[in-house]
# Entry
Amino acid sequence: MALAKITPEQAKSLPAPASRKVDFVKEIKPIFEASCIKCHGRGRTKGDLSIESRETLIKGGESGPAIIPGKSEESHLIELVAGLDPDSVMPQKGKRLTPEQIGLLRAWIDQGAQWSEEEILVTFSIAPAVGFVTVKGNEAKFREHWWQRDRWRGGVESFELTESLSKDARLTLEGRALTDDYRVNLLAEKPDLGFTRFGFEQFRKYDSDTGGYVPTFSHDASRGASYQRGRPICRDFSNR
# Structure
């Protein structure tokens, strides 16, 4: 899809580029991590756009190249974050970028959009949860059918820790830790080789209100294909 070029009038309304050398690691990466990576990083490519490397930004997505090194006023990324088109703004959710942040992005692009390959990108997210369940009727049957206890229940609904080892390799640790319900997965990805995943899950399965745990260990591996299409090759189920 061809992009509408930023008009001279629109270019005049853009925040001016920062007038100094921009540090990618200290100034640009934090902007990407705070405002862009949820939709365009960690394996997510909304609109086929990934911000995980200089190459993927230049390649762009469904709307064409995201940046043109040396030409911030012609870069689609600047058009999006500046909100020149009210119907197409980035980020779509959360706080908009400030004029100072846009100025940093413009200067970075004008200076060649240099990317530090050595810096390791680490992101972490966590979602705590707490709840209280009351049961009208047979409490034992409720536990048996829904595999959860009544009254208080809480913990961490989900957590994710991702470490980008390079532009095309990452480690991801994710899972949950709720009352009587635990899961942890370790995923190693490298697109040209595939991926491997190790995990452990333990939850309480109520049976006539007796209770019990079901631990599961799993391993998935794939080579020579998209890492999103791995097949389970080994699983071990055991009860105790």
Summary: Residues 121-237 form one domain. The CA atoms of residues 150 and 171 lie 36 Å apart. Residues 24-35 form the longest helix (12 residues).
